[in-house]
């Protein structure tokens, strides 16, 4: 029963300090950045010098087709 009181205290503290807003914002930001970074990853790798010899880099074609 004590954990319920501590949970309530933490939830009130997080609500008052606006910490509750950062979790959804971070997940939204990650959800937006993931397809963008996947789309531009080949160009980014070429710009920084590519992959080492023997490394294999495959992008799921069906995922990229959905983007365009």
Can you describe this structure?
The protein is mostly helical and 68 residues long. The protein has one domain. Helices cover 71% and strands 0% of the residues. It is built from three helices and no strands. The model has no long low-confidence stretch (mean pLDDT 83).
Number of strands: 0
What pattern of helices and strands is seen along the backbone? Answer: HHH
Strand content: under 5%
Can you summarize the main beta sheet?
A: none
- Share of residues in helices: over 70%
Number of helices: 3
| Radius of gyration over C-alpha positions, nearest whole angstrom | 21 Å
How many distinct domains?
Answer: 1
**Whole-number mean pLDDT:** 83
How far is it from the N-terminal to the C-terminal residue, by CA? 53 Å
- Indicate the low-confidence ranges by residue numbers: none
Class of secondary structure makeup: mainly alpha
Q: What gross morphology would you assign?
A: elongated
Short characterization:
The chain is mostly helical and 68 residues long. 71% of the residues lie in helices and 0% in strands.
Give a quick set of tags describing it.
68 residues, mainly alpha, 71% helix, membrane, transmembrane helix, transmembrane, ABC transporter ATP-binding protein
